[in-house]
Amino acid sequence: MMFDAKAFIAEQVGTIRKAVPGKAIIACSGGVDSTTAAVLASRALGDRLLAVYVDTGLMRKDETADVSKTLNELAVQHRILLAADEFFDALRGITDPERKRIIIGNKFIELFEREASPFGAEYLVQGTIAPDWIESGGQLRDRIKTHHNVAGLPERMKLRLCEPLRDLYKDEVRATARALGIRVAERQPFPGPGLAVRIVGEVTPERVAIVREASAIVETEIQAAAASGAMVLPWQYFAVFLPVQTVGVHGDLRVYGHTVAVRAVHSVDGMSATYSKIPHDVLDRISVRITNEVKGVNRVVYDLSNKPPATIEWE
Ligand code: XMP
After folding, report:
1. What are the residue boundaries of the structural domains of the chain, listed by start?
2. Is the C-beta atom of 147 inside 6 A of ligand 1?
3. Is the Cβ atom of 195 under 6 angstroms away from ligand 1?
4. Which of 77, 158, 185, 290, by CA, is between 20 and 30 Å from 20?
5. 254 in helix, strand or coil?
6. Which residues have a Cβ under 8 Å from the Cβ of 284 and sit 6 or more positions away?
7. Is the CB of 142 under 6 A from ligand 1?
8. Closest among 278, 60, 276, 77 to 184, alpha carbons compared
9. Which pLDDT value is given to residue 150?
10. Which residue stretches of 24-96 are H helix?
11. Is the CB of 192 under 6 A from ligand 1?
């Protein structure tokens, strides 16, 4: 049977109202799932819902402004917490990928708790969707999603859970998002730890700025090529900062510049993936734009690895 987004919204608004007699909070990441859950819960609860968005400094270009605009437009009561400095301080000197994830997850919970506690909520709304909890064989997904779903919060803050999207698959969430008027409905998945796992090695503000600008160029060029019919839109496509400097020329001078890798993959659920066969002229535009527009980068490489043996992210 075809999924009926309007009917789902009407039904869930009623269900949430019954299930949540008091106040609720939600950690809104700016992604499709949490934004959809926030808007749905806000339709049901109005001012009894508080959405908290933490800008970790590791977000995509314009993401914080976009999230703020969306939540304003859809009248979701929210707070935006600008916390880049705290995250950069906590990540200084850290190069191990899993340590980065743990530090970011803990910091996120600490800040979220600080911001949300005074509101006095008894419920936590989460944008968990069916593939997040359905057994997927290797258990990998459960582990990957730990940070994303702010695990630990419900017990720590003594909150009861409300998961309105629990039975939906991604395409159904996108349909619901569109029916709710959410502009980020088609956005590609983005990992909870953000750009930190797209920087190999230490996370610094300079490296984040490079990978953010380069990723915005990758997104723009690939979306334009897909819209023109030159290629199929990949499942995920982004830039990665590599901690190597190589020789380049600038005018008559020999310089050392940074290297950026472009990653684009096709996948159904992120569990396995094949690299996208992007037309060379699209790769060429991406490379020329990155080396021209992103200061300090003189080399762009394309990642030809499938998952397995590689993973989609580099960390
Ligand atoms: P990998 O790199 O493991 O990624 O092939 C598979 C999918 O999961 C996303 N991913 C994450 N999502 N927190 C998340 O919420 C994480 O720590 C994390 N690591 C990877 C990745 O973007 C891809 O869609």
Report:
1. 5-187, 204-302
2. yes
3. no
4. 185
5. strand
6. none
7. no
8. 60
9. 63
10. 32-45, 63-73, 84-91
11. yes
- Helix/strand/coil for 161: strand
For tokens 């590791």, name the residue. Answer: 58
Total residue length of the chain: 315
| 211 alpha-carbon distance from chain centroid | 14
Ligand 1 atom nearest 273 alpha carbon: 5
- Amino acid 221: pLDDT: 98
Check whether 147 has a pLDDT greater than 50: no
DSSP-derived secondary structure letter, 199: B
Please give the number of the atom of ligand 1 that sits closest to the Cα of 313.
Answer: 2
Alpha-carbon distance of 60 to 195, in angstroms, equals 7
CATH topology of domain 5-187: Rossmann fold (3.40.50)
- CB of 60 closer than 6 A to ligand 1? no
For ligand 1, whether the C-beta of 149 sits within 6 Å is no
- Ligand 1 atom with the smallest distance to the CA of 267 is 24
| Secondary structure of residue 45 in the 3-state scheme | helix
Tell me which CATH code domain 204-302 carries. 3.30.300.10
Distance 280 CA to ligand 1 centre (A): 27
Average pLDDT, integer, range 128-149: 58
User: What's the CA-to-centroid distance between 141 and ligand 1, angstroms?
Assistant: 8
Give the global pTM: 0.90
CA 148 to CA 191: how far, in whole Å? 7
Closest residue CA from atom 3 of ligand 1: 311
pLDDT 10s digits, 82-134: 999 999 999 999 999 999 999 999 999 999 988 889 999 999 999 999 887 76
Probe target for ligand 1 pocket from 313, 314, 315, with the most ligand atoms within 8 Å of CB: 313
Residues 69/162, Cβ–Cβ less than 8 Å: no
